[in-house]
Write a structure and sequence with these properties.
The protein is α/β, with parallel strands linked by helices and 338 residues long. The chain folds into 2 domains: 14-246, Aspartate Aminotransferase, domain 2; 250-335, Alpha-Beta Complex (Aspartate Aminotransferase, domain 1). It contains 14 helices and 13 strands. A 7-stranded mixed beta sheet has the order 2-8-7-6-5-3-4, sandwiched between helices. Helix 1 crosses helix 11 (234-246), helix 3 (58-69) crosses helix 10 and helix 12 (251-265) runs parallel beside helix 14. The mean pLDDT is 97. It binds pyridoxal-5'-phosphate.
Length: 338
């Protein structure tokens, strides 16, 4: 099977498993796991943030950030198709008691003026706007890379209006290798960042949340309340450290495969792709055929991908899909009748 469902489907390599098996461990709920501590230190260096907290998932990292930046009955601004709005099951209202003001972006990026226009005036009828969340790369927009200048403008709007800015950087390394902008340069524009080891970086579990000391003290308590404390978590932190050491630069290969795949399938009469959106490892495309039927036929031919509704499909490239398999997938696509 060529699995293009997501970059979360990768399996840890033999070398990563060895690093995990040999990890030094302790009880991380006591703060005693040396490998978790090493990972958190490394992430502080990478992001330029004073504190870091290892968490089970990107979803938990985002929700802890929202909880730690806000108070109940406030409002946060996030992009309409962002992971936080679309796939976190109304987590901001469930966990933090806040309401989301979703704004439609272009390629996933909200217009800073529109953000400014949606900050609530101070009036007793309104919730207080307290946080803006952005996503880089933007998953549902096709893995698009947030231009640093745009992030700077959003950051300025937040600073000028006393709002916090959270960066959902689940795939920040994809953004970084593609744009040449360091993870630190992205992170320092925001008050907090979360990123994932379990996506393109190829680790089996884990994400990190970084921010200032007080913010991470709050997030640590909320992680505990939500049952997110892990004991000998060094076993999984070792996979994350291995990923940071070995699997960052190779993300460019995934971007190359995604681009090639998109260019080739865009020639098919029933495929419509906005090639501007194909910037990293995700290819979102529309089809004039029934997407769920295409998915089914492709599954029968050994390709797994996802559809979103009647005519939208997504293919994601990662370390377990080689250039040869990309070629194979293109060949199979071409056998589908127009
Ligand atoms: C942009 C983005 N943020 C957050 C997440 C959540 O990560 P996790 O699946 O580790 O909870 C995802 C997962 O696909 C994502 O694409």
């Amino acid at each position: 099977m060529i699995n293009l469902r997501s970059d979360t489907v990768t399996r840890p390599s033999a070398a990563m498993r060895e690093a995990m098996a040999n990890a030094e461990v302790g009880d991380d709920v006591w703060g005693d796991d040396p490998t978790v501590n090493q990972l958190q230190e490394r992430c502080k260096e990478l992001t330029g943030k004073p504190a870091a907290l290892f968490v089970t998932s990107g979803c938990l990292g985002n929700q802890l950030a929202i909880k730690s930046h806000t108070n109940p009955s406030e409002e946060i601004i996030a992009e309409w198709d962002s992971h936080i709005v679309k796939y976190e099951i109304a987590g901001p209202s469930f966990i933090s008691g806040v309401q989301v003001m979703p704004l439609k972006g272009v390629h996933g990026f909200m217009d800073p003026d529109e953000i400014a226009a949606h900050i609530r005036p101070d009036w007793y009828h309104y919730p207080k706007t307290s946080l803006v969340c952005i996503e880089n790369t933007h998953n549902r927009a096709g893995g698009t890379v947030y231009p640093l200048d745009d992030i700077k403008q959003v950051s300025k709007v937040c600073k000028d209006n006393n709002l916090k800015l959270h960066l959902d950087g689940a795939r920040i390394f994809n953004a970084s290798v593609e744009s040449g902008v360091s993870v630190k340069d992205y992170s320092t524009q925001a008050d907090s960042i979360t990123f994932c080891f379990s996506k393109g970086l190829g680790a089996p579990i884990g994400s990190i949340l970084c921010g200032d000391e007080d913010f991470i003290i709050r997030a640590h308590k909320y992680r505990k309340i939500l049952g997110g404390g892990m004991r000998q978590a060094g076993i999984i932190a070792a996979g994350a450290l291995f990923a940071l050491e070995n699997n960052v630069e190779r993300l460019k290969d995934d971007h190359k495969n995604a681009r090639h795949f998109a260019e080739e399938i865009s020639k098919l009469p029933y495929v419509v792709i906005d090639m501007e959106s194909v910037q990293t490892n995700i290819v979102i495309f529309n089809t004039t055929k029934d997407a769920s039927r295409i998915k089914e036929v492709l599954e029968g031919k050994g390709i797994l991908l996802t559809n979103d509704g009647k005519d939208k499909m997504r293919a994601v490239f990662h370390m377990d899909v080689s250039a040869e398999q990309t070629e194979q997938a293109i060949g199979i696509f071409k056998t589908l009748k127009a």
